[in-house]
Amino acid sequence: MPDMEPAAATATANLRRARALRLLAGGVVIAGLSAGAWWAAFERGRVETDNAYVGGDTAQVTPQLPGTVARVAVGGTQAVAAGDVLVVLDDADARIALAQAQAALAQAQQRFTQAGAVADAARARAAGRQADVATARSRLAEAEALLARARGDLDRRQQLAGSGAVSAEELATARAALAAATAARDSATNAVIAATDGVRAATGDAAAATALVRNVTMATAPDVRAAQAMLDRARLDLARTVIRAPIAGIVTNRSVQLGQRVAAGAPLMILVPTSGLFVDANFKESQLKAIKAGQAVELQSDLYGSDVVYHGRVTGFAGGTGAAFALIPAQNATGNWVKVVQRLPVRIALDPAELKAHPLRIGLSMTAVVDTRE
Fold first, then answer.
1. How far apart are CA 142 and CA 56, in angstroms?
2. What is the pLDDT of residue 338?
């Protein structure tokens, strides 16, 4: 009987071990089934990458005209609103140009007024020349009448000269009167011609002077409009000496200094927006098949960790991989080619409300999970 007790104990232990192994195997199977069911219900169709980074449309601040920096109103890392003053250039030259443009406009307006007065005077002279023609024609008619009278007197005296009733002196006097009347008639004829030519010249001058002011006003005259455009340009140049923020953002890469002479288009600083940011998630080419525009995306940043979850939407895909647009593209047509899985940037829009509650900065790392089941 003593030999039976160790055998019974061993059998009991083996039974317990087998039962434990069956329980363990059952637990593993149940856990596996549970994990598979959970994956099928919640994780199936979700594509994830941690190769994602925050991006945004930055604004480079540059002057539109050259000048000397008179004041720098902001510093690096400073937050500014759209329209805030960033840099002020010396405006002495711009103010002088504005004064010159104002004087040029005043001169153009005076010239237009003068052109109107000249046109009025030219029309008045043309009307006066018409009166001169009438006067010259009346004098011509009078001279022709005197000529006819003188010719008649000479004819009568010549008829009486044979009878001795008219002396030679009277006949000579009549001939002299006829010559004088003829000369007066010729002079009056020339006066009519001259007056007519004067009318033509005055009419032409009036037409030329009137053409400068016909169908135009002070505001629409070409010279006045050109001067007004120069004045507007001068005012614009003066306004451009004050450089303002085009967007709201954070001042970054400020390189401008007080007293610096800057050229038009020289970079002064960069404004990084705090709103309107997005995420460029670089998915493997093997992950892109199920990703479509409009699908929901859950994102987490390394800045806030898993405590903050952002929600976004896929908005588009890049036109090519990063390697395709590299400065030195990969030479795949070589004998030592090794296939490397490529990644394509996928643009993801963020929820503005979540972004306002938990601000991000450009370049921060993100983890993106796209739900392809939608």
1. 98
2. 80
| DSSP string over 164-210 | T-S-HHHHHHHHHHHHHHHHHHHHHHHHHHHHHHHHHHHHHHHHHHH
pTM value? 0.66
Phi, psi of 186 (to 5 degrees): -65, -40
- Locate 71 and state its tokens: 């004041």
Query: pLDDT-derived band of residue 345, with 50, 70 and 90 as boundaries?
Result: very high
Structure-block tokens of residue 328: 């030195």
Domain that holds residue 362: 46-57+273-371
Return the CATH number at 293: 2.40.30.170
Count other C-beta atoms under 10 Å from residue 29's C-beta.
10
Which of the two residues, 44 and 100, has the higher pLDDT score?
100
DSSP H or E run through 353: helix 352-357
Please determine, for residue 38, whether its predicted confidence score (pLDDT) is greater than 60. Answer: no
